[in-house]
Design brief:
The complex is a heterodimer of chains A (104) and B (345).
Chain A: E1 2-6, E2 12-16, H1 23-29, E3 48-51, H2 53-56, H3 64-70, E4 80-82, E5 96-99
Parallel strand pairs in A: 1-5
Antiparallel strand pairs in A: 1-2, 3-4, 3-5
Chain B: E1 7-8, E2 11-14, H1 18-29, E3 34-38, H2 46-49, E4 55-56, E5 65-66, H3 67-78, E6 84-87, E7 91-96, E8 102-106, E9 111-114, E10 116-119, E11 125-128, E12 158-162, H4 166-175, E13 181-186, H5 195-206, E14 211-223, E15 226-234, E16 237-242, E17 245-248, E18 252-255, E19 271-272, E20 285-287, E21 292-293, H6 301-319, H7 334-339
Parallel strand pairs in B: 1-9, 2-3, 2-10, 3-6, 10-20, 12-13, 12-17, 13-14, 19-21
Antiparallel strand pairs in B: 4-5, 7-8, 8-9, 11-18, 14-15, 15-16
Classes of the chains: A alpha+beta (104), B alpha/beta (345).
The structure holds flavin-adenine dinucleotide and FE2/S2 (inorganic) cluster.
């Protein structure tokens, strides 16, 4: 399956994703600039993405830990998610998101 | 100004992550004393900052323990050697002094001197995240601060604090008494902080002593580094909020920091070392744990432990040039057991 990630320069990247992996890992391993400092432990908020509207509703809802950690992200919007908390499945084939601004 | 005399010790360890903590033990077995410095307010490095409650499964002989448990055990293991901790301090300078010893200075003014320095700085210093708001750097140090060292600095000011965690709430609560006005901006009504501080904050807003803004900062306004106000993005649009001091608290991120200026060779922000001694390009300065680099390096805690043991033996002659180092087992050496306090009962 494939996902489409728009980077901070507004360029869209088509990435091949495998079932069961964290979306953050797919984005990071493709060389896109997500720091993912905590390696997917939901402890750093540096894997913050904005999910394209239609896709947002297809995701399982963020749990309390993720909502708490989003407090450490910047410019949080209604479609904000931490990409390390999204596990790839067939239902997400074609998924689209944009990388959120990064901290210095 | 009077010259400050440095405190002398055998080994200065930069970074109190798991690897720095185990180095205390390995150096201690060789009867070497250590001081550790960490910018975090407690030991443990990534283990306590990033995954205190998450399990680690690959520590030899410990099938399962959390980041916090591992840290607690390392502290207990090193305790007989009485390491001295300097927490909440960042090493900013490393230089040679006239005795040909290494001298370390922290941002807090601590001055230490030793024949050996061990850099166990992991992924770098944990430093406050700087929010990517346009022109924020123009205000840093004059109107925008990421930490509070001296409350008096903010007396009589119009303070706005951003964030919803413990630091944000603690500082609203503490600075309220010195501020002219104080406000907190946070994106939701839920706070991820100790219930006591949350309650205190809520009662302060009820009494009109502090103001809560539900929203996020969108822009800064001011001149020559002096902030005059911020634009807040709230549910029903943007509003302008007066303030002359902004304190953003969005957690920490790892940055190499001052280590880049220590005059050591670097390879992609890591310190190259040899795999027999773990010494850097400077004699007497060693690098162990996640911060070092050599062919085949794995950034694992167990690798750092191994590196700590070999480093200790390589460092010994710098500190005790006239003593012969003997290889001993903790199981059978009464010397080592005495040092560990095992025969003292
Ligand atoms: C989510 C996650 C899970 C992990 N799981 C495992 C696992 O299962 N098994 C495993 O083996 N490893 C694991 N790791 C890796 C492991 O955490 C690191 O290998 C380990 O923490 C490295 O230890 P360290 O002591 O070298 O550095 P760190 O833990 O990074 O500690 C370095 C310390 O030095 C301080 N410091 C740096 N520069 C300065 C300065 N100039 N002044 C003052 N202080 C400074 C920093 O603030 C920090 O506290 C994991 C890492 C993460 C993020
Ligand atoms: S990688 Fe750290 S929160 Fe997602």
């Amino acid at each position: 399956m494939r996902i489409f990630i728009t980077d901070r320069e507004n360029k869209e990247h088509e990435l091949v994703a495998e079932e069961g992996r964290r979306m953050m890992e797919i984005i990071r391993d493709a060389g896109l600039p997500v720091k993912a400092e905590c390696g997917g432990c939901c402890a750093c908020a540096t894997c913050h993405v904005y999910v394209l509207e239609d896709w947002f509703t297809k995701l399982t809802e963020a749990d309390e830990e993720e909502l708490d950690m989003l407090d450490m992200a910047f410019d949080v919007r209604d479609q904000s998610r931490l990409s390390c908390q999204i596990i790839m499945s067939d239902a997400l084939d074609g998924f689209k998101a944009t990388l959120a601004p990064d901290y210095d | 100004m009077m010259e400050k005399t440095p405190v002398r010790t055998d080994v200065i360890i930069v970074g109190a992550g798991p690897v720095g903590l185990f180095a205390v033990f390995e150096l201690g077995l060789l009867n070497l004393k250590c001081h550790l410095i960490d910018i975090l307010d407690r030991p443990g490095g990534q283990c306590t900052e990033l995954f205190p409650q998450k399990p680690i499964y690959d520590i030899p002989g410990i099938p399962n323990c959390t980041g916090q448990e591992l840290t607690d055990r390392l502290l207990e293991q090193g305790k007989p050697f009485n390491p001295v901790f300097h927490c909440s301090e960042m090493v900013t300078q490393l230089e040679k002094n006239s005795d040909d010893h290494w001298q370390v200075t922290t941002d807090y003014g601590t001055l230490l001197e030793a024949p050996v320095v061990v850099i166990a700085a992991g992924g770098g210093s944990f430093m406050p995240k700087k929010p990517p708001i346009k022109d924020i750097e123009d205000y840093e140090g004059t109107s925008v601060f990421y930490a509070v060292r001296d409350m008096d600095q903010f007396r009589g000011k119009n303070i706005l604090i951003a964030g919803g965690g413990d630091s944000a709430l603690d500082w609203v609560n503490n600075l309220q008494s010195v501020a002219k006005n104080i406000g907190l901006v946070h994106r939701r009504k839920v706070f991820r902080a100790a219930p006591d501080s949350v309650n205190k904050f809520i009662s302060m807003t009820d009494e009109g002593k502090a103001k809560f803004h539900l929203g996020q900062i969108a822009a800064l306004h001011g001149n020559n580094g002096q902030l005059e106000g911020v634009t807040l993005k709230c549910e029903d649009g943007e509003i302008f909020q007066d303030c002359d001091i902004l304190l953003p608290f969005f957690g920490l991120t790892m940055k190499l920091g001052p280590i880049a200026d220590f005059g050591l060779n670097l390879h992609e922000n890591l310190i190259p070392v040899d795999t027999a001694r773990f010494e850097t390009s400077q004699k007497g300065i060693f690098a162990i744990g996640d911060i070092n680099h050599y062919p085949g390096k794995l950034k694992l805690i167990l690798s750092g432990f191994h590196e700590a043991a070999l480093m200790s033996h390589a460092a010994f002659p710098y500190i005790k040039p006239d003593e012969k180092l003997r290889f001993q087992y903790t199981t059978s050496s009464s010397n080592l057991q005495n040092a560990l306090g095992i025969n003292k009962k």
